[in-house]
Structures are given as C-alpha cells and as structure tokens.
C-alpha cells in the first residue's frame, strides 16, 4: 500500500495461504522476509519480543494441542530446533515484559504460564464462573485477563506465580484486552442488559470506567461489535468495530467518544505507528490491510495482493 506521506515502519503479519510469518515494509508493502511456520499447526496469534529482535507465534494443532514458535528477526530465521513447545491449544496469548514467560488461555478459558527457558508449563486456577477467555495482558508485575461469564463477563488479576489476586464482575461481554500507556482497555459487546463500548482499567486497581459506543437499544438492531482497542499515547484510543466497518475515537481522560472513522469494510484489529499518526487495520472478513490516517480521520489505502492475511499484526518500528 504505497504512500510517500507515511513515516517508515515495519510490519509483522501472518499469511494463512503461505503458512508463514511476514516481515514487511509498511509504506511500500514490500515483503522483506518470510518465515515458514511448522506444518501441522494453524497460526493463532503473534507478538514481538522485547527489543523487537524476536517474534513469537502461537499455533494450534490437532486434538486440543498447541505450540509456540520463536523467530529471530535479526538473523531472519525461524528457530524450529528449540520450538515448538508442546502446549494446550492457545486461544489467548501475552508475554512478560522481559520476554521470559508466555501466558496463554486454552479454549476452556484456563490460563497457563510457560517458562520460555525451560519449556515448563504450569496451569493456573480459572476465575470462578468464567467461561471463554477474551484477552490476556501483562501490566507491570501483574497478569490481567477478561472472560465471558453468565450474563456478561468478568476481569481477573494474577501474580506471576499464578495466585488469583482479585476479580471484578462485568455486566458486559468482553471481546479483547489491550495494554496502553497508563491503562488497560477492554472492548465489549452487548449483553442482555448493556450496549457496546470500552472499559478503562486503571493499573492501580481503581474502579473501571465505562465508555459507551453504542447504547443497548441501538446495539440490538445495529451492532458495532468493538473488537480491539489501541493507543499510542494513553490519551486517545482507537477502537476497531467489526460490524459497523469503522473505528471509534475515544478521549481517554474524558472517557468520551469524540468521532468515528468510516472505513467501508470491517476492521478487526489495529496497530498504531509510534508517532500516533497512522494505523494499520486487519480484517477477519477480508484478509487484507487498511492504512488509516488518524490525524485526518480517513482510510488511505487497502492492500491488493494474493496473501491471506490473518487478524494478528504488529508494528515493530
């Protein structure tokens, strides 16, 4: 998606058709390196490691099995000799800040911690009444998660040793969890008694703040389905809304929606450039990318290639 106005950046993407991780130049779309993934597994998610020298890809195998693949971006090589680690099917995925531990949730919503040095995997207690896990995130020295539950959802916080520290019932159905500067952001969709929007979780454990994007009455007939939140500065958040083919703009300090960027096609996940001027959106529906001008609040370009790009992505510089 060439454009000369965009500051240089590099993308990590998953290509389902090529069964590989792609390292690509953002402004031009040129593929700089392609890393084959282990056969017999389907790619689920990706995260860059500390220093952006490595990438980690979670994969799902057969009969509830999973794996984690580590890729050296500097050497442009996938380390399949030490990987994949044998794991439960990894539905959700997060990394410790030092990159030494991976946190996973399986289809039953049960969290697991994987020591990346020893490959030892420990199973943690699932929050009471929780069902499917909608997101995991590491903030400071705590591991946070959001789960679906009867009538809505819940949030929970763990210590690094797997101790369940606290839980919080949510009257909404969470769809994702993101760490941004100074906050954790959980998107949510409608429950029988709620609309759709964003929950702001202060890291100090203070009461969460709810931002409504779509009221309950409107959500019943015209759902927006907030699927993912991203922020470069902790001041403004951008929410990918799958069903409304748009991105909601939220002032985090005021906890208010300040605008909408209409894309004309579904968006499932966002990654922002470091300067906060542009975003890349992926789509579960279209298997492509959209370049978004966040300053002028408009889409700039869409990819046109034969790659089948999955929802996970990351901007690494």
The major β-sheet equals: 5 strands, antiparallel
Distance between the termini: 17 Å
Gross morphology is globular
Q: Helix tally?
A: 1
Structural write-up:
2% of the residues lie in helices and 54% in strands. It is built from one helix and 29 strands. The chain is globular and about 50 Å long. It starts with 9 loop residues before the first strand and ends with a strand. The model has no long low-confidence stretch (mean pLDDT 90).
Key phrases:
five-stranded antiparallel β-sheet; 317 residues; 2% helix; 1 helix; four-stranded antiparallel β-sheet; mainly beta
Give a quick summary of the entry:
The protein has one helix at about 215-220, and strands at about 10-15, 20-25, 30-35, 40-50, 55-60, 65-70, 75-80, 85-90, 90-95, 100-105, 110-115, 120-125, 130-140, 140-150, 150-160, 165-170, 175-180, 185-190, 195-200, 210-215, 225-230, 235-240, 245-250, 255-260, 270, 280, 290-295, 300, 310-315. It is mainly beta and about 325 residues long. The strands form 7 sheets. Strands 4, 5, 6, 7 and 8 form a 5-stranded antiparallel beta sheet that branches. A 4-stranded antiparallel beta sheet has the order 3-2-1-29, with no helix packed on it.
């Amino acid at each position: 998606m060439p454009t000369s106005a965009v500051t240089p950046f590099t993308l990590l993407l998953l290509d389902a058709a090529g069964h590989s991780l792609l390292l690509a130049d953002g402004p031009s779309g040129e593929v700089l390196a392609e890393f084959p993934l282990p056969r017999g597994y389907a790619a689920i998610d990706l995260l860059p490691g500390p220093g952006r020298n490595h990438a980690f890809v979670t994969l799902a195998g057969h009969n509830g099995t999973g794996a984690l693949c580590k890729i050296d971006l500097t050497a442009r090589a996938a380390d399949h000799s030490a990987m994949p680690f044998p794991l439960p099917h990894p539905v959700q995925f997060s990394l410790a800040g030092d990159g030494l531990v991976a946190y996973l949730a399986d289809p039953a919503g049960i969290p697991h911690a994987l020591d990346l040095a020893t490959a030892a995997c420990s199973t943690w207690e699932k929050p009471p009444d929780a069902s499917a896990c909608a997101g995991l995130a590491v903030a400071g020295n705590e591991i946070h998660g959001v789960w679906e539950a009867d009538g809505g959802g819940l949030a929970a916080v763990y210590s690094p040793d797997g101790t369940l520290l606290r839980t919080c019932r949510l009257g909404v159905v969470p769809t994702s969890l993101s760490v941004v500067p100074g906050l954790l952001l959980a998107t949510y969709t409608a429950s029988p008694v709620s609309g759709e929007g964003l929950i702001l979780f202060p890291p100090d454990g203070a009461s969460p703040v709810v931002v409504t994007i779509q009221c309950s009455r409107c959500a019943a007939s015209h759902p927006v389905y907030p699927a993912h939140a991203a922020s470069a500065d902790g001041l403004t958040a951008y929410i990918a809304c799958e069903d409304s083919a748009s991105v909601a703009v939220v002032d985090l300090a005021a906890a208010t929606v300040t605008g909408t960027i209409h894309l004309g096609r579904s968006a499932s996940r966002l990654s922002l450039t470091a300067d906060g001027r542009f975003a890349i959106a992926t789509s579960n529906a279209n298997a492509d990318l959209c370049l978004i001008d966040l300053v002028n609040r408009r889409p700039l370009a869409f990819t046109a290639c034969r790659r089948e790009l999955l929802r996970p992505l990351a901007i690494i510089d």
